[in-house]
Batch of 4 targets.
Target 1
Amino acid sequence: MRLTLLFLLLSVPTSHFIKGAETEQDFTWHLQKLPLIVSQRTFHLDRPKFQAEIKLELNGACGIECQKTLPLPSMSDLEDCLSYETVFENGTRLRTDVNVQGFLPQAESENTTSVKGRLRQKRQVYGTDSRFSISDKQFTTKYPFSTAVKISSGCSGILISPKHVLTAAHCVHDGKDYIKEARKLRVGLLKIRSKGGGKNRKGSKQRKKGSSDAQDPVMDASTLNMKSLNKRSVEGSQNHKGSRRNRGDSRGKPSFQWTRVKKTHIPNGWLKGISKDVALDYDYAVLELKRPQKKKYMDLGISPITQHMPGNRVHFSGFDDDRPGQLVYRFCSVSDESSDLFYQYCDAEPGSSGSGIYVRLRDPRSKKWKRKIVAVYSGHQWVDLNEVQQDFNVAVRITPLKYAQICSWIHGNSADCTHG
């Protein structure tokens, strides 16, 4: 029954979710001039101890309600938070101080409006589980699902270049020290082995690298239809223990190709010495791989307000702990937002933290729909709400400042990061 309802939903064109006076023109990626984040000085720090334990649920984090009570950060505060640490594979650690140029704080605050009329609910997974395990190689090896990666610390991430992965900061650092698993961090890319255990045939055609949607079949809830989505390719939440379907597709079983992480970048805003508390706003990190990958990656995008998302919906895929080895896809509506955070209703379990949250909007030049990453799934977090701890599923939005910072980490300088 649940799958039947999903099939009906997925067969509805994106434009059918446009309401009121909104038109497709509202659902467009807009080119924005970015602030520049310029490195000022770099100096060595002591080697990390790598003694922290990973925590996939954070207590006392500053969420949307907490943010409303805080004064707007000064430029000095922003520069402190956007300065960053880099840890190399050999344990060397650097700090880089930055200078922010061309940034208007009021423009950032105007980039969001509170979503009214919806009540936030306790959320991890309860009631009907709305997640779908992607088990057929027709889907797992195709864009956008193929951009999801597994982090050896137990989290998920997403490819944002041939050799860079975006994930959550708490997947490698607890705010005081790097976690034990970050000492020899690895990233796993989902592969399909043949029934005999070998790799795909050599000489088979490779898709052109890049991040354009134009060359790939549209493979998410925005456009999947009943013909391409079936019980074999996308499983529902029911567990079929011992069944052939639960053991993997007969044409091949999923496995991971693991690659070492060469360096890790974390914003200082995540460090308790800077923020004086765990600040979800800066719960993101970028991992640089030792070897570039041939898989397609997904572009970054500056997070639009939810009214400018078709159906107010977001999408993401990750490797939830309760479904080992399976890629789990979900989509849902955003229930509340600040300039830095989303609260959303996506069912998720530990292990999906660090997943890249994306939306599809129209590219103004090609006129085609294009996916971009607009947030990082921070996970199931406990936040202070009216002096009471409540739990929500939280995502960190990609703001113009964060976009500029992540872009500079990818390119190694800010000169290639002037527009987003």
Note: The radius of gyration is 21 Å.
Target 2
Amino acid sequence: MSRRWIQNPNRCADEYLDGIEDFIEFARRHNSGATRIRCLCRMCNNTLWETIENVGFHLVRNGMIETYSIWNLHGEQLDHASSSNVTRMDNVKPIVDPHDQVMDIIQDAFPFASTNINHEGEDDVPTPIDSAEFEQYEKLLKNANQELYPGCESFSVLMAIVELMHGKIKYRMSNLCFDYFLGVFKRMLPTDNCFLKDHKHAQKVLNGLGLGYEKIHACKNNCILFYKEHETLDTCPICNESRFKMTSQNRTTKIPQKAMHYLPLKPRLQRLYMSTHSATEMRWHKEKRVDDDVMRRLVDREAWKEFDQTFPEFAADPQNVNRCLLKAAG
């Protein structure tokens, strides 16, 4: 079939919309049984997985990668002549195994699990492992291998938590609403299920993947954060407003009037570089970018180029984003 529609800049044109329908039909035919495929829109760039319906929506909204004319990552077979002209990716599978995806997440969060395994003929030096960190790894591994209920082959406990939390965030579901549906799902499942109890329990599990946050109390009138030198105070030193809400004297825990949720930047950047899946993308601006006179990304802007000329030693390091932020944090 002709694929000239990929080059059409008008994404509302009949030619372009018909081309998307042809691709969706092609994807369904070559990925039978798959719930998600690689999204080939310009934003996802064949690195993110979406449902086939969402891929179609992305292609209308963002446009397709113009250089991706042979759909080898979506099941199209390559002949010998054309394979040399296509950017290839190692170990690409047209059908996504959700269990493998969850295990990849765990390996990215705990790289020591793979680096400490000595292969035959290799003299690997074991990486020091913190006992608390290893205990967290074992818990996640147990949840990843534990069936949601006896005989369930589709979902493990960890897989269910990841999928449901992803949906909660994507569709902006409140904690109360989320807890309600968790209770309904738990009653629907067999009585001996291992389904998560509530949102708080799910958060505790995901914290082990490095996806947690710090809760910092704040003044009701936004004067200060009860942090560092103000951490032990019970009232704001500026407006004298109480740090905590008035509650029953029988209550053991105090409830702050206002709190800020802080996502620590340093560990998240470290995980981006520890992960085999995202480390290459973090170096893309240096190693894979097309350097011409066409502005496609922020890296093509004059401000970025001027910064590179001012600090050539810093710019020479493909991991400079990590270096810059770690220095600032340190």
Note: Confidence is low (pLDDT under 50) at residues 80-96, 114-127, 322-330.
Target 3
Amino acid sequence: MEKSVLPLPSDKDLKDLICQLPDDILVHMLSFLTLEEAVRSSVLSHKWKHLWPFFSGSLNFDDPDTMWDIADKKKKMEFERNKFIKRVNRILKLLRGSNLDEFRICFEFNKDFKDLIDGWVDFAISKGVKRLELDFSPTWAYLGPKRYTFPHDRFSVGVSCIKSLTSLTLLYIHVTGELLEHFLSNCPLLERLYVSDSEDIVNLKIWGSTLRLKYLHIIHCSQFKSIEVFAPNLESFGLVGGIIETHVNYAPRLLDVHIGGCEPVKYAICPLSNYLPQLQSLVLNIYISPYVKLELPKFQTLTNLRHLKWKVIASDAESLIGLIPMIEAAPLLQKFNLELSWCKPLKKRELRKVKKHPNKHLKDVEIVGFVGRPIDIELTIYLLESAIKLEKIVIIPRNPALVGTPWEFDEIEKNERAIKAAKQLKKNLPLGAELLIL
């Protein structure tokens, strides 16, 4: 007897079935879409037209292309900012949902727009927002005292709506250490805290046996002096700045560290020495001065380190050879990245030969900012000769600060010289390895 085959529902039947679902389920489905996709759903039917205003997903107001055009003087800041403000206000006026997953504003704003931005923050908090990000990074000019100040008065007393907050990201915004500590005390679900370029943070105490905090990065905060950390769930810790007194008292789950600034080894790596063997990823910002000899302590074995990245600023006459012991201290290293920003003047010097140190696990190398001079050639040759099972090396001969911007390929002549030097490295490739010059 032949088995009967049920016909598959048509697109129209499927659409009708979906429309019969309860409104709360349909609204939940909308939360998995972008705001633009949710708005477009209004064309499906009269019912969908009235559902999208209850969108509760991610409100991501970001316009990087316009910001690049403003920086390149192709568009006017005042005109584009007014367009941006109208767009945000129009959307917020239409939304009627009771909660929100994410609220993200990325545009150049300063204290002149405080009332407006305070209103946006109030809106997000009133919706029980889970992830809040304000990125007011300037196009070029330094904002200084004109930076927007996060509305401290809103949170000086307990606000029940912030208890839903899981992630807080603030860039180029005045915020104090006291307010950040208040958030940590009053946001029991907070797992991610990222603050960059704030001038108000001086001291910060991250302390609590019940903290859920997994990700803590404080970057380029010029007045920052000291930090204490007792965070049982912390997995990623970033600290980039000047001389910062660092005390990591308890972080048993720490896996990822990003450290940089004035003598990062002395002021940050050494206080983290108890946790170095458990790290899986380490990013180090280093400035190599022609006036200060680079000295690293003898590294204990970085037993679990799989990914090492250096972000180096150095003059052409300097050498990265002094950093090699860090590579050799990681026997299971699989991926190595270098971002090299070099300073003039260019000086000729002979290549220094470095004794190879066989590494059986390093498979992936990327060098951004390759200039094809002794400072990067001698390190690259060392890596090619030591990584006996290397699979791929990627060389990007462009300024790391410009990669991904409209000005990435401006220095054509210098890039061409670097590409020529990179091609000469093919003779050093281990068998089976691939060299990509991007």
Note: Residues 342-437 form one domain.
Target 4
Amino acid sequence: MFPGALRAIASTSALIPRGSSFSFQHSHKHLTGTAPSPSRACFHGNRCIPIAPVSSTGAFMDVEIVIGDPESLRKKIDAIRIAGTGKLQVIADFDCTLTRYWIDGVRGQSSHGLLRQGNPEFDEKRKALYEYYHPLEISPTIPIAEKAKIMEEWWGKTHGLLVEGGLTFQAIKDSVLDANIAFRDGVLELFEFLEERGVPLLVFSAGLADIIEEVFRQRLHRTFKNIKVVSNRMVFDGNGQLIGFKGKTIHVLNKNEHALDMAAPVHEKLGDPNGLDYDFASVKARKNVLLLGDHIGDLGMSDGLNYENRIAVGFLNENVADSLENYREAFDIVYLNDAPMKGVVQLVSQLCSSPK
């Protein structure tokens, strides 16, 4: 297993502007109206009442969302629209954010967990590392500074096993081919919409860029000029065998926009896999952010950016009853139960529309 292969699920995307219509979905009944107070919109007693926005055609979207503060969200949407698409960027986590949590009733694999080295001995060694370090990763009693050193150690040992075990790029392609991994419905539409409007999308991951990019190739069958994967990048020899890693390690506790400063020179030396010249300075100058994540810790992905407005969308895919309150407070919008990406597409469409 790779570091951080299993973790709580959360992410965001949705919106209810002032006066817009919506539906309550509760006990399989739909009730439409105008947006009430946040507490009534989100809760009935101790139970959550999910909210589903109505599409432009009047059809109910098959999603469940919670918005803690609709008025605050409306103000952010208005500010981002007025500033224009030239000031907007999207930052997204990969596993369980862009990808689905469940696939045909089976837990989908992460980009970490799908890798098979072609050497069972080393697969087992990586799994043993996960079983030792993961409890330390989620421990609430270990100070952050100490935990960061532990994570650095874990990632270093895991990367070492991949080199020692003779990982090849062909093994990565074979692993992805056989993997139970899929993008959320609507992700391709989101990517195409952002590309058409020149809005950059940074995909942050503590995993391996080479695996993530292979998932893009095999599952979407195309590349996007506006997308950049910021993650740990492998170096292969002429025979396609892993010989090392470039740059400083990106792990779960330093996966934020500071990683751009670590990753940029690395990617410049290696060459962008899409053959593109990605201007990181220009990206950091975009002061309005749409952040997509599945874990409260993903909010840190924008820590290195001096943003003016940020809309945080969280995907909460399991343990909804136990985690909803924390996610509602942390994210502007919370999508429940492995929701599709179509609500985010609707939100981005509004953010990129001309102000009235």
Note: Confidence is low (pLDDT under 50) at residues 4-61, 264-277.
